[in-house]
Each structure stands twice: as C-alpha cells, then as structure tokens.
C-alpha cells in the first residue's frame, strides 16, 4: 500500500492531507495549532511517522511541535534558540549595525538518516541543530561567524535562513541560503562555511557580483545528483554543476524569471519546476494566469503548464517553501498559494487539480510518500 | 492561592482548561507568579516573557483589578486581591493585527 501525506503550513494553522496512491480523494485534517503561523512542517525521511512543525506568532513567540504518529497528535518540543556567544550585529535596512535577534524558525530540515536530528533555519539568519528530537537546540555558529556576517542585510521578509540542503552522499556537506546574504556551504558538518555565490548577478545590490548579499529565494537538489543545484533567485533562475562553487543562468524563455519556489522531479533529475511571478513589486503571476513552468532539459527551455490552473484573474503568490514533489511512479507535484489553494498534479505537472481551495494563506507545502 | 487566567492559545499549549491556580511562598509578584507558572508548565517558557532576559514579550499585557500592571516592575507586589486569590491575574494578548 502506498500513499501520500501533504503537510501544509498556513498563516493560521497546519493541515495534513492524505490520500492513497491514486491521489484522487483527499482526507483533510486540521487546523492543527489553529490561529498560529506555521511557517514550515516536515517529516523525517528516516521515520515517516515523525513530523516536526514550526509554530509561531507575534504574541507568544516560537514553539516547535513534534508528532510521532504522522500528525494525528503533537507534543511541544524545545523552543530555546539562543545564539552562541555574543550575538554581534548585522546590517539593518538603513545600513546601521543591528543586533542579531531571534524572531522565528522559517525552515525545519530533518536529518536524512536519524529521526532525532533536525536542523532549523531561523530569522535573524542562523542555523541550529537538535540531536534529541527537537528538545535542545544549539547554533552551528560557524555560519554566522563567517567574516561577512556583519554585512548581511535583511530582505523585505526579514533576514531569514530559509533553505537547508543536506547531501545524501556526503554527511559533512550542508548548503544553506539566506535572504539577503546568499548561499553558504559547509563541508565539515557545519563547523566552517564559505560563500557559494560565484556567478550570481544581482542588480539590486551595490556590487552586482559581490561575494555575498544576493537575495536567493530557494535552492533545490535531486538526491541522485547532489552536485547539481537549481536556484530561484530574486530575479534569475540559476544552476550549479559543482555543488555551488559556480552558478550560471538558466532562465531561458521564462516569461519572467522572478519567483520563489523551485523543485526537481522525483525521478528525472533534469526536470525542474518554477512558478514565474511578475516582479518583485507585484507578487502575482503575469497576466493573471497561474502557470507552473517545467524544464525537461535542466533549464533554459521551459514550457508552461496550465491545465487545471486558473488562467484569468488570478493574483495569488506561491511562496518559497510552498512546492514539493512525491516519489510515486508517476511523480506528483504540489504547490500552495497565498489564496489558500493547494494544487496537485499526479502526472508530473501535465494537469492540476485543487485538493483544497479555501485554506488560510499557504506558507509551506511538504510531501511524504508513504509505504 | 494565586489565580491566573491565560489566553486561549496558551491554555492550549499548557493543556489546561479555565483558570490556573498557583501556590506561592512569599509575597506575590509578577516574577514569582511567572516563575511558578513556567515551572508548572514548561511549555509556556518563552511565550509570556523572554527566556533569557525575562522581559515581558511586547504584545503581552498583565491586568488585574481593572488595572494595567504590565509596566509595573516585575518584583513589585501584586494587589492584595490577587495575592489572596480574590481576583485573578489576567495574562492577555494585546489587541493587535486584523
């Protein structure tokens, strides 16, 4: 028996959607933690019953929740995220030094092999790790200690560490992305880091080719080919064939290369998906048409996927963590919108259907392929 | 016995219904009440005040006896009516947002 569990984080709670392998009928559970912002929830690749959720709001701060039964019940875990040592300062929006202050957990990335080990990307940007199922968190402070740290500056959404990519072939290699500092890579399990932004070009910063300062929105990798990375930057879709040492643009014929999410087909490492958004000042699809674009050539050549998606008067956004794929034989692709719809395709993007359509604004979508 | 009324989200986190009753040793203050509350319900740590600095979170208010106690020093005695349990201490999420 196979099935799919879709984990949806929204502005007002978490939802768990389940289906059998046909992906035709969906059971919707939730809201869990109703009224709280759920920036992200994700399951452990090593134990499909173990889920983690980041729960926060402006009144009561940050909670981490853990489930050991696939999201039926939850228990609070640890919420102490103290920066290591003296926090120091980064740049504020006006260029003045600003003390590092914890705001929330944007992204949770469970270990590929151990259900009790999990990484958390937080705002203000830092990487934390727990090795006891989320009870105790410790900063991997070498990242923030990178010499460029005092020059990092927040993007419009805050200075967040939003992407954590774990290399399945090399347990020491971790890649993270920060808005608006860029990509950093560690090859020693998070002890030391170096910037990995060569080839990125951003007109919105003083030196468009600077080593750091790029507003990277999302990085995706296919587990069979960890050296190949795909990036949706503020503007530009990029590709690296050397684990982030260098990047080249693959925007090709996209109608606009601004956007937030990017993901890779579960079985075809050169098939990738983006959702073009009109511009950084108009966070909605061009022409009111919600279109996923797919490249089957690893970039440069893109085709619009529109069947089942609204092609008029659609002005939703799709946020950076709100797209995921399943690993069934016919790869499923899922994304959520700020309008509260979660669209699913069970044929690798050829056609789409909303599996829920009236949730609060969707912040994140993750998928577990159940066995 | 000190009576504390928590907002709905924090009651859910703590797994309690209705008021919380706390037994304190010594004169009741905000700090002693919150220390005891967090000791009894560890999941509330960080939700009402910062875990390290112990400063009240910006959108949290403390009301009692129709008085806003939010800006009182944390070691100031709470009103007698709160200390005796005649009136509850209200922990309130400030009106904000939409």
Task: Describe the overall structure.
The complex is a heterodimer of chains A (371) and B (98). Chain A has strands at residues 3-10, 13-20, 27-32, 37-44, 47-57, 61-67, 75-76, 89-91, 97-99, 104-110, 118-123, 126-130, 138-139, 160-166, 174-179, 182-186, 194-195, 216-221, 229-233, 237-240, 248-249, 262-264, 272-274, 292-295, 303-305, 323-325, 333-336, 342-345, 353-356, 362-370. With 371 residues, chain A is an all-beta fold. By secondary structure, chain B is α+β, with helices and mostly antiparallel strands. Chain B has helices spanning 8-14, 30-40, 80-83; strands at residues 2-5, 20-22, 60-64, 67-68, 89-93. Chain B has a five-stranded mixed beta sheet, with helices on one face. The model of chain B has no long low-confidence stretch (mean pLDDT 94). Chain A binds chain B through residues 35-36, 57-63, 76, 79-80, 82, and chain B through 7, 9-10, 13, 43, 45-48, 51-52, 57, 59-60, 93-94, 96-97.
Summarize the structure.
Chain A is mainly beta. Chain A has strands at 3-10, 13-20, 27-32, 37-44, 47-57, 61-67, 75-76, 89-91, 97-99, 104-110, 118-123, 126-130, 138-139, 160-166, 174-179, 182-186, 194-195, 216-221, 229-233, 237-240, 248-249, 262-264, 272-274, 292-295, 303-305, 323-325, 333-336, 342-345, 353-356, 362-370. With 98 residues, chain B is an alpha+beta fold.
Features:
heterodimer, A: 371 residues, mainly beta, Methylamine Dehydrogenase, Chain H, four-stranded antiparallel beta sheet, B: 98 residues, alpha+beta, Ubiquitin-like (UB roll), five-stranded mixed beta sheet, 22% helix, globular
Strand and helix layout:
The complex is a heterodimer of chains A (371) and B (98).
Chain A: E1 3-10, E2 13-20, E3 27-32, E4 37-44, E5 47-57, E6 61-67, E7 75-76, E8 89-91, E9 97-99, E10 104-110, E11 118-123, E12 126-130, E13 138-139, E14 160-166, E15 174-179, E16 182-186, E17 194-195, E18 216-221, E19 229-233, E20 237-240, E21 248-249, E22 262-264, E23 272-274, E24 292-295, E25 303-305, E26 323-325, E27 333-336, E28 342-345, E29 353-356, E30 362-370
Antiparallel strand pairs in A: 1-2, 1-30, 2-3, 4-5, 5-6, 6-7, 8-9, 10-11, 11-12, 12-13, 14-15, 15-16, 16-17, 18-19, 19-20, 20-21, 22-23, 23-24, 24-25, 26-27, 27-28, 28-29
Chain B: E1 2-5, H1 8-14, E2 20-22, H2 30-40, E3 60-64, E4 67-68, H3 80-83, E5 89-93
Parallel strand pairs in B: 1-5
Antiparallel strand pairs in B: 1-2, 3-4, 3-5
């Amino acid at each position: 028996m196979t099935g799919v569990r879709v984990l949806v984080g929204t502005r007002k709670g978490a939802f768990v959607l389940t289906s059998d392998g046909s992906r035709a009928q969906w059971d919707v559970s939730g809201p869990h933690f109703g009224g709280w912002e759920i920036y992200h929830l994700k399951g452990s690749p090593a134990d499909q019953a173990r889920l983690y959720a980041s729960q926060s709001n402006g009144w009561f701060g940050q909670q981490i929740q853990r489930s050991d039964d696939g999201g039926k019940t939850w228990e609070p875990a640890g919420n102490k995220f103290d920066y290591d040592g003296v926090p120091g300062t980064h740049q504020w929006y006006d260029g003045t030094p600003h003390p590092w202050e914890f705001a929330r957990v944007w992204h949770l990335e469970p270990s590929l092999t151990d259900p009790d080990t999990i990484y958390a990307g937080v705002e203000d940007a830092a990487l934390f790790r727990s090795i006891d199922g989320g009870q105790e968190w410790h900063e991997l402070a070498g990242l923030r200690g990178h010499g460029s740290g005092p020059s990092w500056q927040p993007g419009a959404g805050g200075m967040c560490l939003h992407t954590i990519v774990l290399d399945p072939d090399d347990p020491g290699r971790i890649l993270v992305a920060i808005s608006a500092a860029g990509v950093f890579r560690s090859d020693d399990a998070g002890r030391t880091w170096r910037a990995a932004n060569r080839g990125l070009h951003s007109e919105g910063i003083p030196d468009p080719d600077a080593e750091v300062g790029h507003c990277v929105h999302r990085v995706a990798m296919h587990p069979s080919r960890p050296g190949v990375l795909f990036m949706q930057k503020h503007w530009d879709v990029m590709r690296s064939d050397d684990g982030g040492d260098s990047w080249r643009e693959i925007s090709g014929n996209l109608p606009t290369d601004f956007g937030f999410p990017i993901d890779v087909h579960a079985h075809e490492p050169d098939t990738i998906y983006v959702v073009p958004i009109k511009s950084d000042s108009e966070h909605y699809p061009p022409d009111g048409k919600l279109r996923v674009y797919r490249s089957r050539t690893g970039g440069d050549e893109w085709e619009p996927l529109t069947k089942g998606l609204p092609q008029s008067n659609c002005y939703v956004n799709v946020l950076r963590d709100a797209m995921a794929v399943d690993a069934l034989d016919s790869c499923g692709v899922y994304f959520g919108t700020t309008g509260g719809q979660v669209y699913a395709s069970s044929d690798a993007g050829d056609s789409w259907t909303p599996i829920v359509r009236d949730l609060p604004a969707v912040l994140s979508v993750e998928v577990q392929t159940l066995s | 016995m000190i009576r504390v009324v928590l907002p709905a989200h924090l009651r859910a986190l703590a797994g309690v219904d209705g008021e919380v009753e706390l037994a304190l040793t010594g004169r009741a203050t905000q700090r002693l009440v919150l220390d005891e509350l967090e000791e009894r319900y560890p999941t509330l740590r960080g939700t009402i005040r910062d875990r390290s600095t112990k400063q009240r979170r910006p959108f949290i208010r403390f009301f009692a006896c129709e008085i806003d106690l939010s800006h009182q020093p944390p070691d100031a005695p709470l009103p007698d009516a709160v200390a005796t349990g005649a009136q509850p201490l209200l922990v309130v999420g400030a009106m904000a947002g939409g």
